[in-house]
Amino acid sequence: MVAGIEHCVYCFDVLVAYLEGRMSLEPEFEDHQYPLFVTWNIVSHGQTRLRGCIGNFEPLPLHSGLKEYAITSAIHDRRFSPITIRELPHLTCGVSLLTNFEDAKDYLDWEIGVHGIWIEFVDDHNRRRTATYLPEVAEEQGWTKEEAIDSLLRKSGYNGRITDKIRSRVVLTRYQSAKYVVTYQEYLQYVSEKPTKHNIKHENRNPKGSEYLDEYAIDEWN
């Protein structure tokens, strides 16, 4: 299955509904199960910057999974303040469905621009650390494979000296993804062509009032 416009539109509507206090549209796609990530970027003065990206490596039903992570990545990514309604016109939403997971032979056994990478290693204090980058990240940043691994080591929270010995401890899983990106304007056009009556329901919500402790939830930046 390939990620499509309907997945991104659904995520956009879930976020807009959350911010406006109404019910979101019903999904118009099949409820297959996939590991997935939802990425929010903001475009301003020709520059694109990340506003939130969180996903899950466990296969999730797309209906509930995209609904959950559309909000989690927009509101609960601890690296950023929650997305506000004023930012909507400048947002893009990307949905990545992850496939083809493979155990790599070593930390260099992957291809830039083709594979996403998940690393796991145990540091000098016997602490297990993990981190991931989606397939597009290393290429967008202009990194070599080693630079991408070193960045992931830092992302995992490791602050020690990075040496070949440390890199050799890395257990790497490579994967691929099907990604689709939609702008807010494309979302508006899509829903305007498919008129749906919304049931407006205002609720009191505290964006900081809940925690997401799923051990498989991984945040992503590019």
UniProtKB/TrEMBL annotation:
UniProt-listed SUPFAM superfamilies: AMMECR1-like
Regions that span the bilayer: none
Cited InterPro entries: AMMECR1 (IPR023473), AMMECR1_dom_sf (IPR036071), AMMECR1_domain (IPR002733), AMMECR1_N (IPR027485)
Annotated coiled-coil segments of the chain: none
Domain AMMECR1, chain residue ranges per copy: 1-191
A Pfam entry, by short name: AMMECR1
Alphabetical list of PANTHER family matching this protein: AMME SYNDROME CANDIDATE GENE 1 PROTEIN (PTHR13016:SF0), AMMECR1 HOMOLOG (PTHR13016)
Protein name according to UniProt: AMMECR1 domain-containing protein
